[in-house]
Amino acid sequence: MMKFLLLLCVILASIDASITLQNINSKPPSRAKNFMIWQYLKQDITPSQADKAYSQVKGKSRKLLLLYAKKTDKKSIKREIYCIKRNDLLSIKDKKCLALAFSPYKTLYLSNTQRDRLSRKELSKSRKELLKIQNEPFSQQAYEKYSSSAILTLFISTTRKHRRKHLNLYLTGEFVNKLSSCWKISTLIKIVTHDNRLNRLQLSLLNLEGENLNSKSNFYLALNHLKHNNESYAMHHFNISMLKAKRKIDRDKNYFWMYKVTKNTKYLDSLMLSGDINIYTLYASEITKKSFSNYFSVVEINDNKNKRDLQNPFEWSKILEDINKTPKDELYKLSRKYMEQEMIPVQTLILEKAYGLNIHGYVMPYDRYLREVTTDKKALVYAIMRQESQLIPAALSRSYALGLMQIMPFVTDAISKNIKKPIKNYDEMFIPKNNIYYALNHLQWMQKSLYHPLFMAYAYNGGMGFFRRHLMKGNFNTGAYEPFLSMEMMSNSESREYGKKVLANYVMYKKVLGEEVSIVHLFEMLTYPKMTDRFREQG
Asked: What angle do CA 274, 276, 279 make, to 5 degrees?
């Protein structure tokens, strides 16, 4: 009976396991430790305990600060949060508090008189200039006397509704090119290009020269010219963008678009020399009927057991640190230390790095947890997993997305309410079996509405609501340069690039699994609602 009671106590303790201050004190500063502190601050702890834990946070985290402010008794912290949240700017007398409370969004709703009064307070020169320009009539003539930084801040740091209503102005070529001297012009170009309601500003961007702008800005300017049927100018900006691009995928993207505009196969030939595997090179490979072989799907393994725990975020941090500090010419030797079954993802990562990312790994070390799913779903799971975590079980993002499939804690909580065997704590999401089980549950829910791997990727990254809004704006319909223009016009940069990478991974995993799929056909499907989603009218 006593043994039974002791066993029961152990089980109950594991179910209700909590993080202690001693646990936190024993760990080195890292993102994993910040995650522990985040969980600890959500527990029932004293203000003193909260202070001791928060003092060990590495770097700055608004998420942790807001949580800590609810637990601590420190007046300075509570006042800082109080100031940040204040909207009554004119009533604030303290200089530091006003600096924390100030934002262009708050001053937008003040009257001219109120902004005049606020500008007489102790504020930085740039903030005073912003208040003055916010009081001006909505016209280029009124803005010409201000600095480029102030003008661009006015256009950028406002709401979409206000920008569309008041700031959709036609600006002369001389004026917009003057603005290009400030780095903030890149943000304005991105905002304007992605919002078709800003039609006058889009016309203004047609006057913008690109020689002094970065690769990304020139790419958006090229797309803007295409939307206005100026193909020769678009080619000019694509060429500048390609020459200024620092990453392979950015160069490839420009070559792809130059081919779409001109149909000149020399750009496809350039894509085939890239060395990268992405949607653009996969497209070129299919059109030219030229295959590539710079990838692998298996690595050499032995029967040993590695002493390092790849399900432990702290241990993974150490492994990653070792990889990053190893000279390139010694990386292959380092990869031989990770030849165990459970270390396949680490060996793959090191080999890719050793070959300068010119050879790409599409390994599948978690097949035992995917035996009951279709080959197609397996390809999708691995495609997402490769992008999310590089197949590392202990992966942990800055926003605390967890494990192989980088599932956010709030999504984990939601799934836990609807399955028979939920995890007991977040650390269990670093166990591959659990993480994949949760991800399959989430993907099954998503696949009730979305039927295309690209759309699944968008929704997986940005959320179903976000993607549905993008879709219902009229994107992915028929038209010149579709569906590619809709792919580039997604305003969420992270989801836009994420979707491209997952789609390329999906095509490659289908190939490795013996079910090759045409990326050209996948692109063609995107403009046929009945083949992609349930949200649009089914034609």
From this structure: 105
SS3 of residue 449 by DSSP: coil
| Model pLDDT, residue 388 | 97
SS3 308: coil
The predicted model gives 497-523 an average pLDDT of 97
Contact criterion met (CB below 8 Å) for 368 and 292? no
Q: What pLDDT was estimated at residue 99?
A: 96
- The percent of the chain in helix, strand and coil, each rounded to the nearest 5, is 60, 0, 40
End-to-end CA distance of the chain: 68
C-alpha–C-alpha distance, residues 347 and 392, integer Å: 11
What pLDDT score was predicted for residue 447?
95
φ and ψ at 337, to 5 degrees? -85, -5
DSSP 116-176: HHHHTSS--HHHHHHHHHHTS-SSHHHHTTS-HHHHHHHHHSS-HHHHHHH------HHHH
The first and second tokens of residue 383, run together, are 């495609």
Does pLDDT of 298 surpass 90? yes
pLDDT averaged over every residue in the chain: 94
Residue type at 448?
A: K
C-alpha 467: how far from chain center:
14
* Cβ count within 10 A of residue 369: 18
450: helix, strand or coil: strand
| pTM score of the predicted model | 0.92
The DSSP 8-state label assigned to residue 212 in this structure reads T
**How would you label 31-63 residue by residue, b for 16+ Cβ within 10 Å and e otherwise?**
bbbbbbbbbbbeeebeeebbbebbebbeeebee
pLDDT in tens, 111-126: 999 999 999 999 999 9
| In the predicted structure, residue 530 carries a pLDDT above the cut 60 | yes
